[in-house]
Fold:
Amino acid sequence: MFKTSITEMLGIEHPILMGGMQWLCKAEFIASAAEAGIMSFLAAETFPSAEALRQEIKKTRQMTNKPFGVNISMLPEVVHEDRALEFAQVAAEEGVVAVETSGRDPSFLIPILHEAGVKGFHKVSLIRYAKKAIQGGADAIIILGYECGGHPGRSDVPTSIILPRAVDELNVPIVAAGGIVDARGFAAALSMGADGVLMGTRFAVTAESPMHDNIKKRYIEVTEMDTTLIMKSLKNPLRCYKNWATDEVLKMEARGATLEEILTIVGGKIGRAAYESGDAEGAPFPCSMGAAMIKEINPIKQVVSEIIEGAHRILADLRKMEGQKTFETQKS
Ligand SMILES: Cc1cc2nc3c(=O)[nH]c(=O)nc-3n(C[C@H](O)[C@H](O)[C@H](O)COP(=O)(O)O)c2cc1C
Structure:
């Protein structure tokens, strides 16, 4: 067991969070994650209205009595403040444990959450945005390295650098994200001062993930060389595995296409259709560089217990190495 400020704050068993994932994070998937002792977030943007989100929260509650949260992604030009506020209001009224925000400063919705005792976790890739969110009342920061699946923001800094920087600079609990898929990443993040980890891609490729099997199999084949960043020209990069759709988007960007044109391939509904039909080429699929280390499609509980048990083994091995070094030093 690893007990940290994050397990305390959220009332969860393990300091592990599953990041919000559009189209995937619905009731059944969230309830499975909650039952595995981790925190996860219903993806608000997936629902047509705040009322639909409320129904999904109620549905999740019928499947689990463990804590879970709501993700409110606020991508510039796609999501409007009013809509984000409506989602925050429902999350507060329904008393979920935490809200994960991303894409824009969450300060305008934190008071609504705090009034209902809901914790605000803001996901960012830059220290200065983290500081702004903390000033606005964020309870914890999810610091995101460039390796991550989805939107890494506009900094090119990997988790191994941005995480210790965040630990040094910020005065709230820190959750590490970006490229973490196994016990090694978990143990390394905690060693660098994180109070927990958040993973997306690893959980997208689990037995309970509602993604079509064809696509899960494709993630398993991805190596560290097989992801790419699309939409850099729109100042909103998105890391996906390379396929027909990402090639098309990169060609469009090279000839200066507009957001509207690019959305004909990147648009949420196309992604949703491809997730369900199993067309692994038909849409850009957010994917971490860390997918290179994912070898099996296992149930969430197994993924979590392998991480926790693996991390204990890593710590024990390190202790042994420390002992050997002392022994060698004594000999010389
Ligand atoms: C398939 C997929 C969909 C995602 N959708 C969202 C989303 O809707 N909102 C969001 O804030 N982050 C989204 N993300 C990012 C994750 O929440 C998380 O920040 C990221 O996956 C962490 O990096 P990792 O993939 O290296 O673990 C998505 C990631 C994946 C893999």
Notes: Residues 19-22, 43, 45, 71, 73, 102, 123, 144, 147-150, 177-180, 199-202, 204, 286-288, 290 surround flavin mononucleotide (CB under 6 Å). The chain is about 45% helix and 15% strand.
